[in-house]
UniProtKB/TrEMBL annotation:
Gene3D superfamilies per record: 2.60.120.1440, 3.55.50.30
Natural source organism: Rhabdobacter roseus
Transmembrane segments: none
UniProt GO MF annotations: sigma factor antagonist activity
InterPro entries linked to this entry: FecR, FecR_C, Ferrdict_sens_TM
Protein name per UniProt: Ferric-dicitrate binding protein FerR (Iron transport regulator)
Domain Protein FecR C-terminal: 273-336
Residue ranges occupied by any FecR protein domain in the UniProt entry: 138-228
Residues forming coiled coils: none
Length: 342
């Protein structure tokens, strides 16, 4: 799909100054649905704010006040002559006023602290612009976004969205891993979009769907409503209806399937694993994504054997034990890996 050109710098500046035309505003709001557009928006916003600071010092007035002070202060030669005092006995000098040095150095410390603060703000720009939620292995949690949409974030997954203005200027999130979304339908019908690392974008209004984005591959499962997918190497958007499962490979290839038992696909929320003719190699990947363990399958024939069934497992060992008994496999376990043999 061809990307739309970004608005010009002048258009961004007019938008920030509230002078943009309706067409320019629409172009800028549309570009916020892309990674490059968002980066350009905040880049030009930083430049515009530097050129339009909230505080404008009046240098001419300050200079005039200094001149008045200088003229009102008599020069040193017109002051009273200094009268010599009789010599006094030599005394030990008083202790050096280190506290005064502390006050002097305090000013430099304040300047240094300000510089460090500005530097840290610049380095942590992403933290100010975005809020990121990250789950560890075996961790699942439910999050409510500012627009009221609910997200069930899967294990070893992360979700990023705008820290300020979410639901007003944009409803775009970036997902790495797996999550289920229950999207609210706002009065202004503003689209909700999920973007994955391989560039796939899922756009919806109000619906329930699951997105899995791992190993540069994206899979979308639609439960209710309708969604539209924009895929970099596919010319036309892909429309999904309930029951559709669309997979985009790392090479950008598209595969669309129908699932009659779609609710079982999202049983990972209840620590259940649903497999339907799933190759054992894919099962090993799911175990790694959920529990963080590494499974090695040296035999190619064994990697292609398929598994069908629903398994309840709170720990990796529980699921491995069930699979090895059902498939009559042998397991070699070390500190960090499991090896499966026929």
């Amino acid at each position: 799909m061809n990307e739309q050109p970004l608005p010009t710098k002048a258009a961004f500046f007019a938008y920030f100054a509230h002078h943009a035309t309706p067409l320019e505003r629409q172009l800028i709001e549309n570009c916020l649905h892309t990674v490059q557009g968002t980066k350009a928006y905040f880049f030009y916003l930083d430049e515009w704010e530097r050129q339009h600071p909230q505080f404008h010092p009046d240098l001419d007035s300050a200079h005039d006040r200094y001149e008045q002070y200088r003229l009102a202060t008599p020069p040193l030669t017109s002051r009273q002559p200094i009268v010599s005092e009789p010599a006094q006995p030599v005394q030990e000098p008083p202790p050096y006023p280190w506290h005064r040095l502390g006050r002097l150095s305090g000013g430099w410390s304040a300047v240094a602290a300000s510089v460090l603060l500005l530097l840290s703000l610049w380095l942590s720009a992403d933290w100010w612009y975005y809020k990121t939620l990250t789950n560890d292995y075996q961790q699942i949690r439910t999050v409510t976004l500012p627009d009221g949409s609910a997200v069930v974030l899967g294990a070893h997954s992360s979700l990023r969205y705008a820290r300020y203005g979410f639901g007003v200027g944009t409803r775009r999130v970036l997902l790495t891993g797996e999550a289920q979304f229950k999207v609210t339908h706002p009065p202004d019908s503003k689209l909700f979009s999920v973007q994955t690392p391989n560039g796939t974008q899922v756009e919806v209004l109000g619906t329930v769907f699951v997105v899995n984005s791992r190993r540069n591959k994206t899979r979308v499962m639609l439960q209710t409503g309708r969604v539209r997918m924009n895929i970099p190497k596919v010319a036309q958007p892909v429309l999904l209806v309930p029951g559709d499962v669309v997979t985009v490979s790392a090479q950008g290839h598209l595969q669309k399937q129908r699932q009659t038992s779609l609710p079982a696909q999202v049983t990972w929320q209840n620590h259940q694993f649903f497999f339907q003719d799933t190759p054992l190699a894919e099962v090993a990947n799911q175990l790694h994504d959920t529990f963080g363990i590494t499974i090695i399958i040296p035999q190619t024939e064994l990697m292609n054997r398929t598994v069908t069934g629903t398994f309840q497992a709170d720990k990796a060992d529980d699921l491995l034990e069930a699979l090895t008994r059902m498939m009559q496999l042998r397991v070699e376990k070390s500190k960090t890996t499991y090896k499966l043999y026929q």
